[in-house]
Amino acid sequence: MFVGLHNLEYLYLEYNLIKEIAPGTFNPLPNLKLLSMNNNLLSSLPAQIFRNVPLTKLNLRKNLLMHLPVSNVLDQLDSLEQIYLEDNPWDCTCDLLSLKQWVEKIKKDTVVGSILCHTPKKAAQTELRTLHYEVLCPGLGTYNPDPSGEESSTASLGPEDGKGFPDTVPLSVLILCLLMFVLMVVFCSAGLVVFVVHRRRRHAKKKTV
Asked: In this protein, which residues make up the domain named LRRCT (predicted)?
């Protein structure tokens, strides 16, 4: 479609009822800097769609995006300065985990506006960037981003993984602790009795003398 437009820098495709973009559509545009596809009917983007495209500004507002891949899509936007993702029906479940990590990794002002969850109900109208990982993906535990800015490949496991700390103390441990306490009381009492008896005997001997 865009073959021969090597010098094209700005492309406006908004309000065109576009439902899908074919793979490689923008590859013939090596100088494209701004791409506006807001107010369409896009529900997904194909892999490699932005390969070798030096976009600095991307507008995807008001589409039908529930998820947006990072691998082979967003991670190809090396020159990105601004991206608009508002007013999409984002499904804030585990499938959106990579997007949340990507948003937190890039520069603070790169994502313009809010990314509000549409579903599930418990996360509705919550900003993706402030949504806790355990709400976004139950069972994942606490995600700790790598201080270097790279995505962490590990996350702490929740109790359901069988490796968390138990919530209750085993009965055998309680019995052992109680037994140790009783023995301690007995020994202390016996020591006190011996001390008192010994002191009385010494006192009695002094009176006899």
From this structure: 88-138
The sign of the CA dihedral 1, 86, 101, 167 is negative
pLDDT of 28 above 90: yes
Cβ neighbours, 10 Å, residue 76: 17
Q: Tell me how crowded residue 129 is: count the other CB atoms within 10 A of its CB.
A: 12
- The CA R_g of the chain, rounded to the nearest whole Å, is 33
What is the per-residue pLDDT for 168? 53
**Position of tokens 């008896």?**
197
Name the amino acid, one letter, at 9.
E
Q: How many CB atoms lie within 10 A of CB 65?
A: 20
- Decide if pLDDT at 200 tops 90: no
E strands of the chain, at which residues?
10-12, 34-36, 57-59, 82-84, 90-91, 111-112, 117-119
